[in-house]
Amino acid sequence: MSAPQPPSDPFVPARATGSQPGVLTIVWRWVVRVAKRPLTWAILVLVVWWLIGAFAGPLAGKLQEVQKNDNASFLPASAESTEVSKLQTEFAQNESFPLFVLYVRDAGLTSADQQFASTYTQSVASMKLVDDKGKAHAGGRTIGDYLVPTATPVAVPAQDGKAVLVNMSVNASSISKALSDHTSPIVAIVETLRYHAAHDKPAGLTSYVTGIGGIFADEFKVFGSLDTTLLGITGLVVAIILILVYRSPVLWFVPLLSALLALSAASGVVYVLAKHDVLTLNGQSQGILTVLVFGAATDYALLLVARYREELHFHDSHFDAMKKAWRGVVEPLSASATTVIIGLLCLLFSELNSNKSTGPVAAIGIACALATTLTVLPALLVVPAVAFYVLAAGIGAIVFAVIGVPAVGGLWALILLAVLVWSGFARHRGRGPSWMPWMHWLRARWVFWPKIPRFGHDDEKLSGLWARISDYIGRRARWSWAATSALLLVAAFFVVQLKADGLGIADSFTSKQESVTGQTVLGEHFPAGSGNPAVIIAGSGQADAVSAAAKKVPGIVEVVPYTGEQAASSGAAAQPKVVDGLVQLDATLRYPSDSPQAQQTVQDLRAAVHSVPGADAKVGGFTAINYDTQKSSQRDRSVIIPITLIVILFILMLLLRAVVGPVLLIATVVVSFLATLGVCALVFRHLFHFAGEDSSFPLFAFVFLVAFGVDYNIFLMTRVREESMRLGTKRGIRKGLTVTGGVITSAGVVLAATFSVLGSLPLVFLAELGFAVAFGVLLDTLLVRTFLVPALMYDVGRPIWWPSRLARVAEPAGGGGDGDVGFVEFGRRGFAGLQVGDYAAGDAGCCRRLVEAVLRSFGLGDGGYEDQAEDGGDGEADHGVGEEEAAAAARLMLSS
Q: I want to staple 615 with a disulfide (CB 3.0 to 4.6 A). Which of 513, 538, 655, 785 is the partner?
């Protein structure tokens, strides 16, 4: 009977017996052999991400082109001011907004001033666009190309004789397309007006370019710096922190490069979606996207690098160490990112389109951060020469550019690439010259230099500060969580001082802007609501009744009909323009259009015109838009916050397979959020001297703080659950805190630093949000997650896992209570989390690991216990000690 033949490989082409393998067979075998190498997949991942970066990178620089910063477009279609905005387009061929040039002389205007204002007004339309230095923009466009044709600029003198107002209307649709040099047209228009007003005016005459157009231009200039200033500062801050954390000349650049790829990919996706009107992008969302992606990607990278470094003590092959580390972090990282993404997507329940767009934009950023962390970051860590090359080539390019020979930078990059490729092949073949120091570097581990983790050496993070904190919580758990809770509740008490009822235009900038100052000066010489009237749309048959009712409202200066040309005066017998049986009336407000008094006037005006029978009157305009925005923000807070809490609680229950623990975690996060708001109320009022908080500030602060607060708790509790399954709940809590404390704290510091960068932008809302998230994250990582959460969980004990089976598993002997001797780690050569009580109780598995650790310390045995677990329990690599022998040997050692 012939011996059985091995089954043929269906993937290898068959060949005749005794014949030489064909070309296809040789090629196929080579492909299979190469495909089995982890290095091949690492290089493939890097190539794919290089292609993604090459495609998405240029799109990231075009995000400003697809921004929409008009508050009216953010309101829901059901808002009264939104309905009015749509109806206004029927009265004018083009949607427009006012732009003012205000000239003031406190001693009274002279004849020369008046003559200059008249000449300036006539020449406005023919002015060619220039920058703030007078340099003409390419294309030769003029201001007249962007004005409403039927509304020529007019000069209106003030009754006090001290000011003259040049009024013009900008065609809103004409400024949507950027100039050839990517400058926003409204910015170019305002810079042109300011340049000519400052250089041509008579001495002593003060000028301001203001109005809605001036404010838009100043905001566009702020958001235009996001591509450079915010990105540069964020990258610099993250780089400095990573250098301090790793104290390595190369390792810090690996997470930074991964974060840059994540931001590039996220920006490209957002650009494509915004360009095709799938979502709405504003400057606020773009700023949040930048710092969010940098912070999240760096946070996730810190956790993966820490676990990789830990596994390098246990594995001789860095590929095996990365495989084990990746499997250890993929669940908590995915759960964490999913929690943040779902929390952000809860903003889709908002009535405001700006909030609806911010949620998906930020969620895209988190998804890209997770994708790069789980793909390109492991590839960069196992092939660190790639990051080294990019860093060295970049530094060389900068140096050669500074010394005036930028062309040499490209040559330097090519030479460096050739040397690295040659030395890589030489080292692989063992033929590298001994004088090259990198020929003797540990494979891939050199990226951690000078603290290189070596196989079989002790892991230094298992002793020190976090081990002492863990031991302290084990001794004083109840006192720790009680004192921490009391401190947070005291801080939360001051939340009543938070004034989140909106900010006026003058209060929305952290620095003085000409447009804002001009609005204030305008109110001193003209009705404060000039240029921003409340717009009333009513039936033509009731126009007179509606006008009469509006004039009786306190705070209304005059009501004039819209005629299709220049606004008529109140005393003229002007006939209103009628469109589909409707007329438009413009009501000038006595108060500044962004003031609380103006909003109250709009409420009274709505009540008055709504009461006119058969008029079906509606009130819109700038003030009404701001009022409706605040009302929608208040509604969003009351709806989205409960939804977010319920969704995140459900995710935690699924992740931890428990109910009690997740409820406690949510409670700690809410208390931490309230404490953060309380501190913010004090700091904003008494340190920064802000006038108040934006109406959307509490909602955004809640979403980010709760999402990231739960984020760090997931990192901690998933490791605690993993350790609790081996060591018991109380020891698992202490072990989890010890091994994750340093990396989570570093991650919190990085995220806090990135969000604090928002304070570099001169917008109060972003400065408030940046401070709130930065302080809240630090509070969570340094106090809540360090003391409150582990101490509370430790005090509750096993019931935190209810109703899962883990809640019913008895604590091992010596279960980590007071007086416990703690745990000792010798890495793979030692015994992790095992205590004398375990051995005395005769736990076979623990005894076996103890004996094998002792044997390995004498150079005997090969770690069969843990190798068997890693090899899937096939027993082929297991030559270790049997359980009965291990128990007997352990009892003998303990007795001696």
A: 538
Structure tokens at 68: 């929409």
- Where do we find the tokens 């789980």? 374
Q: Tell me phi and psi for residue 761, to 5 degrees.
A: -90, 140
Whether 734 contacts 471, CB under 8 Å:
yes
Q: What integer pLDDT is reported at residue 874 of this predicted model?
A: 39
In terms of C-beta density within 10 A (0-12 exposed, 13-18 middle, 19 or more buried), how is residue 203 classed? exposed
The owner of tokens 């607060």 is 709
CA 240, CA 597: separation in Å to the nearest integer? 47
Q: Are 362 and 289 in contact (CB under 8 A)?
A: yes
At 234, the amino acid letter reads T
Burial of 604 (0-12, 13-18, 19+ CB in 10 A): middle
CB 288 within 8 A of CB 67: no
Quote the pTM value: 0.72
Phi-psi region of 464 (alpha: psi -120 to 50; beta: other; left: phi over 0): left
Q: Does residue 486 have a pLDDT over 90?
A: yes
Separation CA 694–CA 702 (nearest Å) = 14
Q: Which residue has the tokens 């033929």?
A: 431
Start-to-end C-alpha separation, the chain = 60
Beta strands in 419-548 (DSSP E): 534-539
Tally of CB atoms within 10 A around 56: 21
Q: How far apart are CA 97 and CA 330, in angstroms?
A: 51
Share of the chain above pLDDT 90, in %: 5
CA 12, 39, 330, 326 torsion: positive or negative? positive
- Both tokens of residue 266? 């996220």
Contact by Cβ (8 Å): 814, 838: yes
Q: What's the token pair of residue 541?
A: 């048959």
Q: Give the three-class secondary structure for 210.
A: strand
Three-class secondary structure of residue 819 per DSSP: coil
**pLDDT class of 489 with cuts at 50, 70, 90:** very high
Please name which of 713, 697, 671 lies closest in space to residue 770, comparing C-alpha atoms: 697
- In the structure, what pLDDT confidence band is assigned to residue 282 with cuts at 50, 70 and 90? confident
Distance CA 163, CA 518 (A): 12
At residue 534, φ and ψ (nearest 5 deg) are -75, 130
In what helix (H) or strand (E) does residue 207 lie, and over which residues does it extend?
A: strand 206-210
CA geometry: angle 303, 308, 312, nearest 5 deg: 150
Full DSSP string of 124-139: GGGPBPB-TTSPBPTT
Measured in whole angstroms, the distance separating CA 691 from the mean position of its chain's CA atoms is 26
Beta bridge partners of 209: 101
* Residue range 577-636, pLDDT digits in tens: 888 888 888 888 888 777 888 888 889 999 998 988 888 889 888 888 888 888 888 888
Q: Which residues contact 655 (CB under 8 A, 6 or more apart)?
A: 335, 714, 718
CA 383 to CA 389: how far, in whole Å? 11
- Residue 573's pLDDT is what? 54
Q: What is the DSSP string of 347-362?
A: GGG-SSHHHHHHHHHH
Structure tokens at 381: 């860590």
- State the sign of the Cα–Cα–Cα–Cα dihedral 8, 14, 18, 24: negative
Question: What digits encode the pLDDT tens for the residues 842-887?
Answer: 344 444 444 454 444 434 444 333 333 333 333 333 344 444 444 4
Cα–Cα distances in Å, from 779 out to 336, 397, 693, 744, 785? 19, 41, 21, 12, 9
Write the CA distances from 431 to 98, 421, 436, 437, integer angstroms. 75, 14, 11, 14
Q: Tell me the sheet residues that pair with 556.
A: 589
| 841: pLDDT strictly greater than 70 | no
Selection from 189, 193, 245 nearest residue 221 by Cα: 189
Q: How confident is the model at residue 834 (pLDDT cuts 50, 70, 90)?
A: very low
> Which pLDDT score, from 0 to 100, does residue 484 have?
92
